[in-house]
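so my prof wants the structure for this chain in the tokens format not the other one, which i didnt know existed until like an hour ago. anyway here's the sequence
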Amino acid sequence: MNKLFNSYDLSGMKLKNRVVMSPMTRTRTMNDLADDLVALYYAQRASAGLIVTEGLPISEEGRGYLYTPGLYNKEQMESWRKVTEAVHAKGGTIFAQLWHVGRMSHTSLQPNNIAPVSSGTIPATNTTVFAWTETGESGPVAPSEPRALKTEEVKRITNDFVISARLAIEAGFDGVEIMAANGFIFDQFLSSQLNNRTDEFGGSIENRQRFLLNTIDAVAEEVGNNKVAVRLSPFGRIYDLAPYENEEETWSNIAIALGKRQLAYVHLYYQPTYVTAPPLAEKFKKFFRKNFVGTIIAAGGFNREIAEEVIEKGEVDLVAFGVPYIANPDLVERMQNNWPLAESDRTTYYGVNGSPEKGYTDYPDYAAE
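here's what i got, hopefully its the right format
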């Protein structure tokens, strides 16, 4: 049997296979709570070896998109409990992805309509977030100009991640994945282009990575390092995140630092589809495998054949699939049996007014087609 469909020991958790459902924002919820439809959506996909949820804002401040369920209070925690119970009832394993968007937000989403926060004051341009428009309707808007976090506020955000992680475990999640990819708050601190701070979180490479590593360590101390993971997108070019000074050295240092921490896994955007430097990214893949001896999950445009190849070569341990899981809740069974994959409707990727189930929970298994 191909290794992709073999069981796998993830920090003492036995996964049914090496297929991972990637985190995907679907903007389907009201009142910041996970409802019965969310529980059904994830339960339908529980044959994955591991499910990683959509990004869950760790605070009101951390939100950058409407209709995304949070995880920062008891009511939200209880709403997610029905999701974890539904997934576990089908023998699945599920991690919560914890999310703070930083500057990728809008004043209409922030408490008291204040400015979003970041490492500095440079706004993201040529991109949008999903917020309230000037006419009071939901829709794409340009991110607002951020304000620079004060030193004590950076430490407060680390604590927000700790609180959210604690709630995730109380809700029954098997672990948490810290979202440190795709141009969100941790990338904003790592970037010498965006981070011109003069405190302990700015300047040198060591200082710019301090926020991320401090947060990983604090969350690990709270819930156990075997229940903590992190997602990274090295050399990513998304949401106006441009190349910066000493970028190769920055990511190499992070690889070495993470190699010293016995985390559940590191989730890498492995096959860059961003405008990036392919030779540099390819070099980093090998460097990371050498310096991080734990579980590596790869994401980014994989199909079954490529997934089998990288696992067989030992380049990664698990492979994450995103878009294929939208229209194929039984993706594992389809790939394992060489059944055709259904095509998803891009117009229903995000919230559908009046029909939240459309393009969300109404895709059938192959046997029911």
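also thought this was worth mentioning. The two ends are 27 Å apart (CA to CA).
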